[in-house]
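ASSEMBLY PREDICTION REQUEST
Request ID: AP-0331
Submitted by: J.K., bench scientist
Number of chains: two
Total residues: 854
Priority: normal
Notes: Please return the full assembly, not individual chains.
Input sequences:
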Amino acid sequence: MSAEKQTAGAAQADAAGAARAHYAGGVVDDVMVVGVGGQGVIMAAAIIADTAMLGGLDVKLSETRGMSQRGGSVSSHIRIGETVVAPSISPGEVDYLLAFESAEGLRLAPSVVPGGVAIVNLQQIVPPLASQGEYEYPFDAVARMKAGGGRDGAGQAGDAGYRVVAVDGNAVGERVGSVKVAGVVLVGALSTHLPFSAGTWEKAIAANVPASFLDMNLAAFAAGREVGA
Amino acid sequence: MDKVLMLGNEAIARGAWEAGVQVAAAYPGTPSTEIVTNLAGYDGVYAEWSTNEKVAYEVAFGAAMGGARALTAMKSAGASVAADPLISSVYTGINGGLVVCLAGDPGMASGMTEQDDRYFGRMSSMPMLEPADSQECYEYVKLAFDLSEDFDVPVMVRLSIQTAHQKSIVRLDETMSGDEAGRPAPERKPPDRKTEKYCLLPRFSRPLHLSLLERVERLREFSERSAEEGVLAFVEPGAGAGAGSAALPLRDGGTARIGVVTAGAAYISAREALPGASFLKLGMIHPLPVAAIRRFAAGVDRLFVVEELEPYLEEQLLAAGIACEGKRWFPQWGELTPVRVGRGFFAAGLDLPRWAQEKAAEDVSIIPRPPVLCTGCPHRGMATAMKKLDLDVHGDIGCYDLTTLPPVSHMHSAVEMGASIPMEQGFTRAGGSETGSVAVIGDSTFLHSGLTGLLNAVHQRTNVTVLIQDNSITAMTGGQTNPGNEKTLAGAETKPVDIAGICRALGVEHIETVDPYDYQACLDALKAGLAFDGPAVLITNRPCMLFPRKVGGDAYVVDEELCNACQQCMKLGCPSLSHTEVTWKNRHKVAIDVETCTGCSLCAQLCKPGAIAPAATAATKAGDA
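STATUS: Completed
Returned structure:
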């Protein structure tokens, strides 16, 4: 992935057409959402993809495969641009990693492009295999990510590193109403890095959550924007 | 124009509905399931979960004979189950259009094998279309219905999991979009009553085979014509190439005009991997437009064939005398992702900085997180009991296959739908095992293809023990209904089948219903079944925790004082159990996550010091003290 896509990435553009301008010239943003089955990864991915479509861009999303509801690792790939060819992100090309669970963030860290952004939820879900003592759960995952850990060539000359934004999505979610909206808090955190207006994101959220919980989700989104920049 | 983000499978359903499909039948199977799930939501479509893929195929086939447009969908393994009608229906032909959606799983995200389904098309002489994204799914399925009726033949729409399970933008037909009741009423053709067409006796089959061969020739002409017109195949010249092909840089400093023949998901990956090349993107992959490929090949220096799994296209090109390079560079296994195609082109000498280095996708040293049986899963009790008794366990296809993996790790075969009971018979005839052996099958799989296997055991008087893990749903694919349920896919009330009654009717004399949450009862039932002289059936009776609705219950808690860290409960592999920081004799004590515990109580039953009790009871005791 080219470096130029990074420079405009942080724009909180409200003006119509800002998103189009960001993606002019073939820039493609690769966004990967990872977590554990049942955490809401698929809904978050749908919100991100819908936002891009509402923003007038091409978007492709590859759905999680396998037995996502049974506690396994899940990941969704979202690719945004004027024209997107493949729905899956290639290794080492993730521009924005949104990790719902910190060990899953560390697992995918090698795929983040130099200069990319990793937004990682502080939640830690210890799988049964670790509980059995067969493997060590990485309780220091966020610290290791902040130290550049897990990436090829980390710390070597010329390594641009990547930004780690740690978010306590569950605590923020609880503060605005329920831990169940933690996923939308994380989407809010991501939203500050992509060139779509808050209004576009809110429309996409409305299209993906039950109407009776819309207000709480919008509050979660707003709270996420505050902690995610 | 309405633009909608759709899964490939959703787009198939939408296109089929617009094309006037009236009957859809399938058995659930990843990655094909969402086609019929979505069709069930459209007005004017009769959609059903059939008992198996062969039945589904035959229901759709009969509907087509009866004059309606019909669709069936299946995964690779399902095509093997349905192979008999799949091949025969190409002999008879159809009346109303019949579309067969066959979704393969290169990479085996959930499949048992990664067979190349395109050979079904060739073997049966069924014309085959292969879409590459959701827009093409939507368009090709409509073309497939027309083609089916124009040529009097079922038409296969072949999908890869990459196509079926990606979401991309579909531009919907303006005349139909936004109003799902807006579809013109489909016209049913008069039903067929033609003995010589539908009765495959040799005297009728022989001329039908000749007309089938003649039809293949006409389809071949159609394939060439559509390629020429750019309808089902199109050429993309390389970047900056004008009418010809672009010369791409090679690593040795030279250049070459690169052409790529490809289709479906492989096309998408190849386009991502090598954007500057010329592409001949095929839409119809049987019969192949060989003349069009030959013309394309003449304009390039090197011709590559990019396809998932077998060298299906490559071998046909080579047989036609068209020089090409394929499996020499691109893997014959697994999903063909852009990076795998890109690495292949790099190895073939192209100068491709993006793919020059192997990059890690993830840090594999981080703790693995495979799917596990849910908290409270009713399969857990029997699985733990079978491990305790050290039985040889012959499984089938369902969630219980998760017991092949740690921490339960106790299942010794899980091969294909319905295999458990007959394989157990053969194993028994070979002498069995010293500790005893058992066949394990779920309700949906038993009703799919277990009955005839059990009937065989009764008829042959083979002394087998069969455990039917009845959780009253088709769970693994996401909770589809089966004949054990009170409702059909369409939501109609129906009579749930009595599985014990079926076993009785088949002649089984030892049938016991077991509560899988009662560990001792599981052990006792297994022992009694094994001791019985003759086929014995055990049936568990607790529902799936996820479908049709999430099952909750009152949580249990661990009294840390009483817990002696013996690890008996941890053998269950329950996601709600975890180690605490506190140790006893170098072993960690255990805690229960009260948020997720459903109170199945198996851990409490295994706990020798009696440290695990319902949270309510524990609270009362604490209050007393």
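REVIEWER COMMENTS: The longest strand of chain B covers residues 255-263.
SIGN-OFF: pending second reviewer
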